Amino acid sequence: MESQDFDASEVFFIKGSLKRKFTLRARTKVLLLLVAGISVREIFAPFTGHPYDFELWVRLGYYVSKGLDPYVQRPPVPNLSFPVSDNPTWPGYPPLWPLFLALIYKLYAATGIQNRFFYYFLIKQPMIAADVIDAWLIFKLVRTHAGYDKGLKAFAFWLLCPYTILISSIWGMFDQIALLFVLLSIFVISNPWKSSFLEALAIALKLIPAIYLPLFGSVQTSKTKIIIYAGTCVTLAAFFALSAYLYFRSWNLSALEGVGSDVTNKFGNTLNYWEVLYNYWLIKNYSVTPAVEFILRIIGLIWIPIIFLATYFCVRSIRRSKEKFEIILMLGVLFITVVFLLAKTVITEQFVTYLVGFGLFDYYVVSSRVRRILFHGVWISTFVELLINNAFGLAFLEPISAHYAAISDYFIAGPFNETRLLLMSILAVIFTAFSLGYLYSLYKEFKR
After folding, report:
1. Please, which pLDDT band fits residue 258 given cuts at 50, 70 and 90?
2. For labeling, which of 25, 133, 217, 387 is most exposed (least CB within 10 Å)?
3. 445 and 341, same structural domain?
4. 229 and 145 share a domain?
5. What is the C-alpha to C-alpha distance for residues 369 and 363, in angstroms, rounded to an integer?
């Protein structure tokens, strides 16, 4: 058989062609996932919303655009509010989110389109955009440490997970925006100025990212950088929260203080084990006495020192670990998130957004088969509880018609209510069990 000689340029051309085909195929997968993830979110965006939270966003956008205090209860907005809705009071967040909603309302008004579903659609867009960017950032983190294929799986999971879809585009909650700034702060963690600025933005949107501030500050490489990080973050977060009061002189600062203290240690409907006691009291029509309320308020503050203890444990583990810094840092953030979910008296369903985001990194980069099962157990039990807690999902259809509000009331206040509360209590025990198992597995990971 006659031998053939291959020119080096031909080999290079063949390799280049294969590389281009692979890149094209990879980009096609990413594009298809993006189209699918965005499409399913946009389909739900105009016609769904939480009857309390999203109705509050509708009112805040309208009234704050008029310069009114967001921490004063307002009536429904004619032609914009849900046909029948809860009577929301005020947001449990700093003023940055209400101000952002005011900008969205001004954009809506500027279009001249008078349609409440279009207004709902506009409110959802920042949440959906952040949702997609979160997926991309998680993809980049996983790809860096575990390769392209696993990164793509993490990307697909976030974009197509029913839980993440429900939180942003159906419920209309904005934790994905706060998570976005936390993830970005991790990307630039070595630069205390940039990272602390992004972390401050996250805290200014929603207070929960503050649980990561002690960890992010403590892992800086010098005492000077630790001071820079903590000082810059606290100063900027306070500035973002309070600067609006310099412009809107009629706003009452004491109302904001009251909201902050209430959110810190309140007692009520929750994902974790406290739900069992809360539902038992609801069924028994128990009226909490001042003495019991005082005790619950004290207990409700225990999560704060527990977070500091968890941070101390993580920082020690990070400093003596031989793992790559970014990997062990992500595990530390996840550890603190799970501790928070177990320690606080009130954990709402949207808080699990942070666990899913950081958990996906662990799932595809580090974790064992057992921890993968626990990860699924946490988010699935949350998703099921979320549906049951909201009239088996029917409450999210209330923007469409008062008919759905009547059906929701039937499930929430009618003959099925005790069954619903019992199911939620069972799910609270399941959620707690999975979370405890998850925490213990992470603890052993740090101790290795």
Report:
1. low
2. 25
3. yes
4. no
5. 9
What is the C-alpha separation between 360 and 367, in angstroms, rounded? 10
Q: Tokens for 185, please give them.
A: 């702060």
- The whole-number average pLDDT for the span 349-373 is 96
Instruction: Please classify residue 319 by burial: count the beta carbons closer than 10 Å to its beta carbon, then call 0-12 exposed, 13-18 middle and 19+ buried.
Output: exposed
Measured at the CA of 392, the angle between CA 284 and CA 155, to 5 degrees, comes to: 125
Cβ partners under 8 Å of residue 185, min gap 6 = 194, 195, 196, 198, 199, 202, 216
Helix (H, G, I), strand (E, B) or coil at 76: coil
User: How far, in Å, CA of 196 to CA of 427, rounded?
Assistant: 37
Tens digit of each residue's pLDDT (9 = 90 or more) over 34-55 = 999 999 999 999 999 999 999 9
Hey, what are 148's tokens? Answer: 């392209």
Phi (first) and psi of residue 321, to 5 degrees? -75, 150
Compute the mean pLDDT over every residue in the chain, rounded to the nearest whole number: 90
pLDDT digits (tens, 9 = 90+) for 276-322: 999 999 888 888 888 888 888 899 899 999 999 999 999 999 988 77
Number of domains in the chain: 3
CB of 55 within 8 A of CB of 85? yes
Residues 361, 251: Cα–Cα separation, whole Å = 42
Q: CB–CB of 22/147 below 8 Å?
A: no
| Spacing of C-alpha 257 from chain mean position | 23
CA pair distance 368, 437, nearest whole angstrom: 13
First to last CA, the chain: 59
Give the model confidence (pLDDT) of 340-353 as tens digits: 999 999 999 999 99
pLDDT above 60: residue 10: no
Residues composing the chain: 448
**Enclosing H/E stretch for 99:** helix 96-111
pLDDT, mean of residues 202-231 = 95
- Considering the domain architecture, whether residues 228 and 276 belong to the same structural domain is answered as no
Q: How far apart are CA 355 and CA 418, in angstroms?
A: 30
Residue 135 has a CB neighbour count (10 Å cut-off) of 25
Q: Does 347 lie in the same domain as 313?
A: yes
* One domain for residues 346 and 425: yes
Residue in 408, 407, 396 with CA at minimum distance from that of residue 44: 396
For 178, the domain range is 174-257
In this prediction, residues 112-129 reach a mean pLDDT of: 97
State residue 257's pLDDT score: 74
Q: Indicate whether 28 belongs to any domain.
A: no
- Structure confidence at residue 2 as a pLDDT band (50, 70, 90): very low
Q: Which two tokens stand for residue 165?
A: 């879809």
